[in-house]
Amino acid sequence: MSNSSLPTLPASDRPEVAARLRDALLGAAFTADGLLELLGAPAYAALARSETVPALRATRGDTPLETLVRLFLLQQPVPHARVEDVLPVAECVESGWLVSVGADEVAATVDVRPYGGPDGEDWFIVSDLGCAVGGAGGIGSREEGVVLGVGGASTTLAGITVRTPVSAALDLGTGSGIQALHAARHVTRVTATDVNPRALHITALTLALSGAPAADLREGSLFEPVRDDETYELIVSNPPFVISPGARLTYRDGGMGGDDLCRSLVQEAGERLREGGFAQFLANWQHVEGEDWQDRLRSWVPRGCDAWIVQREVQDVTQYAELWLRDAGDHQGDTAAYEALYDAWLDEFEARKVRAVGFGWITLRRTDSDAPSITVEEWPHPVEQPLGDTVRVHFDRVDYLRAHDDAALLAVHFKLADEVIQEQVGLPGAEDPEHVVLRQHRGMRRATKVDTVGAGFAGVCDGTLSAGRILDAIAQLVGEDPVLLRDRTPAQIRLLVEQGFLEPVG
Fold first, then answer.
1. Tens digits of per-residue pLDDT, 407-416?
2. What are phi and psi of 20, to 5 degrees?
């Protein structure tokens, strides 16, 4: 379907109406905190799953907040007289936020959803009706140009993004403008692009209604709208990464063969980054028969960039096909048509020798080093969001380790990072543990095995002694040659520094 089959959007060139609407929403406590207080935790959580019945039951009254919830979140027509007491109805109808229904009711033309910013900001995300929850939760829409709201993928990307203040950022495939909105807090000039002009329109509405500065909005695919001489300190993208046969749905399907869209996005980002700048993406990638998936992703990294790639989830091709067919509501239609689509997905994967699909995060950082660092790992375990500072510090550690050879490392004073605990695993009553594990309770929440020397070393790192002096003391304690211990331990120290268990002092 084309965008012409979708409802007409509010005018994006009426910022004064958006400002008055914002004031009215805030005045009625139509905020994330206000919704939680009104609806209660169960109904509030149900909304995030696109379940509206609990919220409908909780908004049977006639308070201003209940009126706004039914109007903008639940897409229920509301009597004109009730809305008149809350909103500038005439202006909202004229500008297109509301439309008259029947003789005495009005209805919203878009979904407007409160969204709490990282520092308590009251923001609002605009999306198409019925599409407030984006991603694999399943919006059941087959509209080609539909624009989704906030989903798990968009909040994940917002959480991992490095938030250093910079002058220029690029949001590729902006959708409803969530990444552009976050970037507006710490970026002087935000450029947002999308192949779907409807998405650019909705991004403008999201920014205006949230009280954020307008972005430079450009239509086009990937880096097409970017001039040759333009570079950025931050590039973010939650692209249409779904690997599917064809490109039915603009909001999710890449339209290139296999994972080529994600590969192209990563490979082309390097030349658009300024020195020290970050490019951060969500992506899907193929696990191809006879090919190491980590090598596949290493080949994507452009020259002149460090990279940290984390695979968070893997699905076999049947799980993957079912997930995204359900996302579009295909399972609810004709059984034969659903089976034919399912078969087409499996045909595509079989032709490409794809056995599974991975999902995760890709971060690039532009570097002038002659020996860029590329880390590709699998970490499906829970993490602590936001992770932006964790990502930034990861690359700081890369620089530090690159600048210190083993001899220099032994001269450094280290301290154990905060909230790291030691676990000893072994049989009950055994004299010695089978192995020792260091575990973080912050950031990536990593766990790593260490030997007895590594555990002892980490345990006494408080910044007072150099690494070499500590190893000499351990050698004397265990009766080992200190020279041999100094030779074999730096690799373990490097790992502990790289993963954030140890921090250099000063």
1. 999 999 999 9
2. -70, -40
- Separation CA 243–CA 339 (nearest Å): 18
Q: Quickly count helices (H) and strands (E) in the chain.
A: 20, 21
pLDDT in tens, 337-353: 999 999 999 999 999 99
- Model-wide pTM > 0.85: yes
* Residue 35: φ, ψ to 5°: -65, -45
As given in the structure block, the two tokens for residue 337 are 């048509």
Is the distance from CB of 227 to CB of 39 less than 8 angstroms? Answer: no
Q: Are 209 and 124 in contact (CB under 8 A)?
A: yes
Identify the sign of the CA torsion 284, 290, 296, 298: positive
Whether 248 has a pLDDT exceeding 80, the answer reads: no
How many Å separate Cα 14 from the centre of its chain?
30
Question: By C-alpha distance, which of 137, 347, 136, 135 is closest to 339?
Answer: 347
| Tens-place pLDDT, residues 204-218 | 999 999 999 999 999
Cβ neighbours for 314, distance < 8 A, ≥ 6 positions apart = 287, 356, 357, 358, 359, 378, 380
Q: Which two tokens stand for residue 74?
A: 């639940």
- The alpha carbon of 110 is separated from its chain's Cα centroid by a whole number of angstroms, namely 24
* Beta bridge pairs of residue 192: 171, 217
Crossing angle of the two packed helices 317-327 and 335-351, in degrees rounded to 10: 140
**Residue partners of 113: CB distance under 8 A and separation at least 6:** 72, 73, 124, 125, 127, 132, 149, 150
* Phi, psi dihedrals of residue 284, rounded to the nearest 5°: -110, 150
C-alpha atoms less than 13 angstroms from C-alpha of 409 in its C-beta half-sphere = 24
**For residue range 383-400, what is the model confidence (pLDDT) as tens digits?**
999 999 999 999 999 999
For 299-331, the DSSP string reads TTSPTTEEEEEEEEEEEEHHHHHHHHHHHTTGG
Q: Are 325 and 282 in contact (CB under 8 A)?
A: no
Contacts of 483 (CB under 8 A, 6+ apart): none
Selection from 363, 392, 365 nearest residue 163 by Cα: 392
Under 8 Å between Cβ of 351 and 412: no
Give the pLDDT of residue 426. 79
